[in-house]
Request: fold
Amino acid sequence: MKLHKFLFLLTVILVSLMTAVVWFFPLNDDFRTSNPFWNGTKDIESGYAFTPLESLSDLPVSPHDTVLVIIPYLQFSATDLAAVSSFITGGGTVIVADDYGYGNQITEFLGLRARFSGQPLLDPIVNYKNQWFPRILHLKPSSLTTGIDELVFNHATALSEIEAGDILAQSSIFSFLDTDDDRTQSADETAGLLPVISRHSLGKGKIFLISDPSLFINSMAPIGDNDRLVQNIAAAGSTVLFDQSHLPPSNLSEAKDVLTQLHNFFTTPPGTLGLVLAVITVTLMPIWHRRR
Amino acid sequence: MIKRLSVVLFIVVLLATFSPVFSSLAQLDRRPHENPATAKSSPGWATLLESYGTAFNLSVTGKNQDAQATINELKKFLAPEALQYLLENYNTLSGQLVSANNEIGFLLNEVSVLLANDRKDEAQRLLDESMMLTDSALFLVADIRTESNNLADELGIFNLADSSPLRKSYDYLIQNLDYFREHIDELARLHQDIENLPEAIISTSFYSPTLIQVASPETAYPGLPITISGQITSRHGNTSRMVKVLLNEVELIEERVSPQFSLEVTIPPQTPVGTQNLTVRVAPQERYSGVSQRIEVEIATIPLQAEVKLPRLVLVPGPVQVSGKIFNQLTSGPELPSSRYQTEAVIKYVINFNDNSDRTVEILTGDAQAAKVTIFRRPSLEILISQVPPNEPTVTVTVTPQERVSGLQAPGINISGITRYASVLTPIQDVRVEVDFAKNSSQAATTADGSFTSLVKTSLASLSLFGVEELKITLTPTEPWYTPFQVTRKIIVLHPLSLSLMLLIFVSFGLLVNKRVKIRPTERRERQIVSPATSRGLPAISHPVKAKHELTGVKGSIISAYLRGLEIIEKRTNTLMTAQVTLREFLKTTVLRIPAAAKPFAELTALAEIVLYSAHTPEDEMTTRAENLATEIKEALDSEAT
Reply:
């Protein structure tokens, strides 16, 4: 076999192999709805019909009866912030679940005083396994907390600048914000009942702030009443959109996106027609050459 | 050119495949989460012990409610299984101690008030009660001290250095327990000096406990009322109290009630199905403490039934008509509000046959035909007859071509092979019906008789050639006590566009095959006539024309001599020297057949090899020798011949 034929064959095999691997290997990115592993959110997508949203520009024009869940791990553009703002004021419900991301960009843009503290919330007493998993037992009645006795957070933070009437859930009196990262409570560190879930009304809609997005991952849903919180969110609207556009994409997810776009194109009438024509052309090419 | 392009393409693919693309996105500073399944368990013992110490300190300083709240929060600590019993006991003793301290303070407060009103007998009775509580508090402190030591043993605290955080926490706890002991001792001393009860204790606010016992139905339905009854018991009086009823902490009603009460509350329509917490909370009032009781209530909804009709085959694009009826089968259940719907009798017949033959089944109610169904190769049939008058007339079931069963008299008829299920159904109005089919949907609502009709338009978006598509009907009742549900059915779909595309592919391949056949038509072989075999004589040897060598001088002369000798030998042995035979091989082949000339031919061959293959330059004498050898060969063979 000649070298160029061998290389061509090898290239085709490699490309086919990598395409198959990329297509079939499950995504393992944090919070991705297509990730079935412990850090993914496939369970909520399949269990509660959360619809993944790849761009905030795809938000519905009439947001009434629609819930948008955002995990802001990437910075927001001005267009994105404006889209979120108009979604809320138009009657939609937004849930911002953040710990160390860019949630404060949203609250600031919306003119709320509330902020995500961005410091680790530790609870050495009321916890699940260790102090990084604070159990949240102080819950105020609301549509979001219905039927919940206990939430378990995972490497969470707390909210600050929240008015008493807006607080829906608080950590225990033993919890504290570990601002100096020494894993023990110092005298100058904020401690006690710290708000972790809050509700704010804006225009016709409302926004809920949750200081830990890990509540949504597959491994945390069965712990405590976390799955009930997700169920309550799902019940808050006829459509629940789960924003994926502010999660850091991995190489695998980008490659999958490309393949998905190709797949989507080929399943459209023009795409399929083009594919069929291409196959026919390649098949008939030897005859064309022979005639010449 | 193609070769170069192939190499470049290969390198590009390899780079794209294996070289990592480093992300330039901003990364988070902290870890967003860890796997809870593999997270290491690490209880915060030091903080736990310190917090108990703080709780005792709060109680000693009169902040009994804060102390009790802290102990209640400490009860939420998830202890390892081996220490659970110890900690539960510790929590119970701590709670009792704080409660006893609170009660002692309350009683002393009461005593001081009674003494101020000169009611010494009543004051003495309360004082005795308080003294008993003081004694029990002392025992409690001692018990807690013992349990603290047991806990320290289990945790290995006594082996730790004084400077370790856990040891420091334990020391803090013991120190506060000692303070508590001193505080109880002080209260005991006060009992001896009743006339001088200090103002500090009197001014401390304490509460008298209240008890409550509540009963409610085990199951409730969203939007429908339930009745909650209960009994409130207070230690020093039976006054009316403010009671609040909450479902999952959402307030349902607040009302002032007598000690024995009964309240009707409506479950909020949006309440999710499942076990929910119903809390009855009695507010604190004057000197009586508040109390609450939580009971579990199962929230359920009433399931509905649907009868759906739809086509089995759909041609895309084309409309799909879905119709049906939604109703509630009344069995045991909650008392529903006076219905705007009329119930009607619906009878279901299940007919089983012994074989799979084709049949027609006809059902007559009185003289009117209620149903007529033809079945093909099915062993059983279900027929639902609705809107049957309350006084059901005689029912005749005719099965052709074979059976005829007549005179079935409702209700409760069971004949071999035919089962009748009669029930009273309520059609449900205003149920939102959403039909989804092949990425298209339509909406409708049920009418007064519970029926609906919906038309779904299909588009060319789907590219399935043909196959089974799922049709989903989502039914959402207006009344919250009914269960929303979904009905799914499979429909066979034919898609003309996809079929055309497939046809195009088939035609193309057909053309291709046809072309190939035309280009290479099957050629008929001509009949070959095989001539009969004839004997052939031995081939005559024709000596090839020897190529002239290009050697000159001494070398040329030697080779010429060799060729001369060679020619003689070839002729004599009738053997030709072919191109693939070396000089030496030819010598070996012929030497036995020319014994007389063997020696000179061997020497001549050696000389020729030297000329041809050796770098050695032959001398002039070698030429003479070679010519002599060639002559010797000729002479030897000639003499041999003669």
About this structure: The two ends of chain B are 73 Å apart (CA to CA). The longest strand of chain B covers residues 466-476. Chain B touches chain A through 68 residues (CB under 8 Å). Chain B has twelve helices and 24 strands.
